[in-house]
């Protein structure tokens, strides 16, 4: 979590300087509404993709998962959200996803 916090802090303070304000990536892409669209499109694709859909078969609450994803992305790109979920390694450890898994044939 310390590494993620450090990463988030760095991103939040290294945006473009504009009129004395720091503009984060989060701000420059349109904030919460843009993050919501990206997450919705991502899950729309993976849930309908035979290569990836089975990883989500046991997820009882996709809306909760989307909420976690939105918080993670927003926090990572300098938004005000605080991500309080597990780190990515722990969250995906039991899924058996490998580098080879993510490659398309």
Number of helical regions: 5
Distance between the termini: 34 Å
The number of domains:
1
Order the strands across the largest sheet as they lie in space.
Answer: 1-2
CATH fold annotation = Globin-like
- Given the helix and strand composition, which structural class is it? mainly alpha
Q: pLDDT under 50 segments (min length 5)?
A: none
Order of helices and strands: HEEHHHH
- At the fourth level of CATH, the homologous superfamily is Globins
The gross shape turns out to be: globular
CATH class bucket = Mainly Alpha
Please give the largest β-sheet.
2 strands, antiparallel
Multimeric organization: single chain
As a percent range, the share of strand residues is: 5-15%
Q: What report would you give on this structure?
A:
With 105 residues, this protein is mostly helical. The protein has a single domain, classed as Orthogonal Bundle (Globin-like). Helix content is 50%, strand content 6%. It has helices spanning 2-13, 25-29, 32-46, 62-76, 88-92, and strands spanning 16-18, 21-23. The protein has a two-stranded antiparallel ribbon with strand order 1-2. Strand 1 (16-18) and strand 2 form a beta hairpin. The longest helix has 15 residues, at 32-46. The model has no long low-confidence stretch (mean pLDDT 81).
